[in-house]
Amino acid sequence: MKPVYFNHDGGVDDLVSLFLLLQMKDVRLIGVSAIGADSYLEPAVSASRKIINRFSNRALAVALRGQYRE
Known about the structure:
Blueprint: E1 2-8, H1 12-23, E2 27-34, H2 41-55, E3 62-64, E4 67-69
Parallel strand pairs: 1-2, 2-3
Antiparallel strand pairs: 3-4
């Protein structure tokens, strides 16, 4: 499996990409971060957490501006 760290700006296209990465059998998502480019950071992190909690079978960290979020 290929390890992938996913950095995104919280846009709908990136949230769909996060969902798709979680479904890929040959990808091991090792972490996720959100940056404030095209969206607000807190909603981007919240949406990422919801997608990860629903569609991943393991815990993943979501980073926000250098901060670590469980």
